[in-house]
Amino acid sequence: MRTAEQRHLLEQVQGFPAQPWLWLAPCATWLPAETPGGRGVRLHRAADGRAWAGDVNCALPLPLPSEAVNAIVLQHVATVELETLLSECARVLMPGGRLWMTVLNRYSPYRARWQWQGARPPSATHCQLRLQREGLRVRSVRHLGPLWSESGQAGGKALPALRAVRVLEFEKRTQAFIGPETARPVGWRGPVAT
After folding, report:
1. What pLDDT sits at residue 22?
2. What burial class does residue 126 get, using C-beta atoms within 10 Å of its C-beta: 0-12 exposed, 13-18 middle, 19+ buried?
3. Segment 133-154, tens digit of pLDDT
4. Can you tell me the distance from the alpha carbon of 76 to that of 60, in angstroms, rounded to the nearest whole number?
5. Disulfide: which of 74, 78, 87, 121 matches 101 by Cβ 3.0-4.6 Å?
6. What is the CATH superfamily name and number for domain 2-172?
7. Using one digit for the tens of pLDDT, what is the confidence trace for 90-122?
8. What are the structural domain ranges in the chain?
9. Are the C-beta atoms of 75 and 119 separated by less than 8 Å?
10. What b/e readout covers 166-187, taking b as 16+ CB neighbours within 10 angstroms?
């Protein structure tokens, strides 16, 4: 599943002129061996779960200027610091930039596999609403993983929403400034009293 997810995300980032980019993974083994073209920063959660390690060791807020990256990949973000991390991603993303976020699908039959390990993924709907409040617009929602049929057997084609992972794609849009108005001629309409 991880390999298919990384392949899909690399295709998305490489198909978008993403320079510079930011890749945030849940641990070091989730960082892809192949990196997108151009300049970028690869980070993963440190062992303590509070800081980030990788190309730069840091904590939130991210040590990047506002509107500094054109593409961001968030893989399986933990619910710890979710609000702060999503706000930081919205801050560092350039207008017109893209953000791809993967979350485990709570409705997938695969949840039985990760629930017993104690995983508590954030709700995809909650993440969508939070990023929309930050000014990002949902471009697409995709599902990755084997397809399931109504009979519950893998390999079906009927229920793609039951796949293991959701990939949410966002785009940052900003409001345009009000354009200049044409100047109207100014003139006196009556006598000027002194």
Report:
1. 93
2. middle
3. 988 999 988 888 776 655 555 5
4. 17
5. 74
6. Vaccinia Virus protein VP39 (3.40.50.150)
7. 999 999 999 999 988 777 766 666 655 666 778
8. 2-172
9. no
10. bbbbbbbeeeeeeeeeeeeeee
